[in-house]
Amino acid sequence: MIDHVANRCIQLIAKSKNLEPETITLDTTFDSLNIDSLDKINLSFEVEEAFAIVIPDDALGSLKTVGDVVRGVEKLLQDAPAPPPTVN
Amino acid sequence: MHRVVVTGLGCVTPIGSSIDEFRSALFSGTSGIAPFPPFAEAPGPTQGLRFTQSAAIPSFDPDQHLASGVIAATNRTAQLAIVAARQAAQQAQLLQHHAPGDIAILLGCSTGGRSSEETETARLYTRDARVHPLTVIRTMASAGASYVSIDLGVTGPVLNLSTACASATHAIGMAFHMVRSGMVQAAIAGGHEAPLTFGFLRAWDSMRVVSPTQCRPFSADRDGMTLGEGAAMLTLETLASAQARNAPIFAEIVGFGMSADATHITQPNPTGAATAIRKALADASLEPAQIDYINAHGTGTLANDSVEAAAIHQVFGDRAPHIPVTSTKSLHGHSIGASGALEALATILALHHHQLPATAGVTTLDPSLNLDVVLGHARPATPKFAISNSLAFGGLNAVLAFRAT
User: Fold this and answer.
1) Which residues from A are below 8 Å from B72, CB to CB?
2) Do A45 and B72 touch (CB under 8 A)?
3) Are residues B181 and B213 in the same domain?
C-alpha cells in the first residue's frame, strides 16, 4: 500500500522532474529519472521542507530508488516525531 | 587581423521575443513600457515607489523553452539568455560550421539572479527560513554564460562581464577583438538582465533617477529612465568564414573603444565618453566625418543626455548637430547589463534595413543639446557607419562601431 509519505515523496519527485506522478513507483530508480547530484540536493531540500526533517549528508549518497527515499523519510519521522507535514 | 561580421541575431525583449517582432516594434515605435502590477512582497501598506512603469516581458514562459531541471536551477535572467542565444546560434548555424572549442561566449550581466537572492534573503532574515540549495547557482552573475555554453555545447572561452550599464557592450567589444585577433573563430556575444525585483526597484527609486512618468530621452522635460529586462545576442565570426559558407551577414563590427571617467561613481563626464567614442573610431580606422548614425546611451536622465550630447559635440564638432541620433531606451527600457546588446541589435537592424528608429516619447526636443534626434517616425536612410554608446555608472564607457554590409 502506498501511504502518505510515499505519495508526498512521489509528488515532489514528479514536480521536480516535470513528470506525471502516476509514472513513478517505489521501484523507480533515480538513474531512470535522470536525477543527478544537483537534483538530489534540490529534492532533499524539498523533502526536508515537506516533512520538517533533516536528512543527514551521508544518507544522500545511498539513495538509489524512490523507495529508498520513502523508507529514509519514514525512519527519520519515527526517530524524531516532527510537526505535521506542510502541504503546498 | 580578421574582419568580423554578425551572422546571427537573437532576442527576448519587452518589444519582441523574436528578431521579427523586435524589428517591427523598433521601426513602428511601439514601446514595451507599461504599468507594472503591485509587488505582493511589499511589506508596507504602499509600494513605496515614485514610479509605476517598467519594460517587462510578461509573455516570457520558460516552460515553453527549457527543461524543468534547467528552470529549477536558473534565475529568469539566465533563462532569457539561453533562449536569445539559441536564436542567434541557430540563425548562424553556428555549431554546424564551427568546432565547439573554437567558439567563445561573452555575455554582459550586471545584477545576476537578483530575484532568487531577494526571495531567499527575505525568508532568511524575516523568518529564519532555510536557504534553498540552488540559491548560489541561481544568483551568480556568470550563470547565464555558463548555461548558454551548456545549452549550445560550446567549450571555448566563456565569460561574464559586469560593468553595470555597459556590460553587454563591453562583452560584444571584447568578443569582437577575440574573433578579430584569431583567438577564436566565432562568438556568441550579448547581454541579459532581469532586474525588475521589488528590492532593486526600491533601490533605484531611492537614487531618484527613474522617471515618475515615462522615459523620454533628449526631451526638454525628461525626468529619468525606465527600467527594463531582456536579453539580446549576436553571433560573430570572420568575414571570410561567413562568405565561405554563404551565411547571412547583418553588419560588420569595425571598432570598439572603452574608457573610464575616473571622476565620479554616478556623475558622467563628457570627456570620458568622448574618449571611448574616439577610441572606437581609431580602432576602426575611421574619421569622425565618416559616422552617419548614433545609437545613444540616452537613458532619459537629465545628466546622461546632457553629458552624452556634450561628448558627441566634442568628437564630431561642427557635424554633431547633423548626425542622426536615436535612443531606443524609451521603447525597450533600460535593461542595465543587457541594454548595450539590445542597442547593438537596434543599430545593426537600422544599418541592415536602411531605417533609423525614432526616439519614442519625446514631447519637445531639448534645444540645448543641439542634436539631430530622430523623432516621430523611423527615418529612411542608408548610413554606412554607425556607433552605439554605453555609458555606465562608475564612469565605465564602451562604444561599438559598425559598418553596413
Assistant:
1) 16, 42
2) no
3) yes
Q: Look at residue B251 and tell me if it is in a domain.
A: no
What's the whole-model pTM score?
0.94
Nearest beta carbon to residue A39 from set B69, B130, B132:
B69
Q: Each residue of B54-80: pLDDT tens digit?
A: 999 999 999 999 998 899 999 999 999
CATH of residue B123: 3.40.47.10
**Residue among B139, B305, B144, B338 at smallest CA distance from B227:** B338
The pLDDT, as a whole number, for residue A38 is 87
Q: pLDDT, tens digit, for every residue of B128-146?
A: 999 999 999 999 999 999 9
Whether A42 sits inside 8 A of B72 (CB atoms) is yes
Does B41 lie in the same domain as B85? yes
Q: Is A16 on the interface with B (CB under 8 A)?
A: yes
Alpha carbon of residue B26 to chain centroid: 14
Mean pLDDT of A2-30: 92
Indicate whether B137 and B272 sit together in one domain: no
Q: A71 touching B, CB under 8 A?
A: no
d(CA B136, nearest CA chain A) in Å? 12
Domain containing residue B236:
4-244
Burial degree of B213 (CB within 10 A; 0-12, 13-18, 19+): middle
Write out the three cell numbers for B279: 577610441
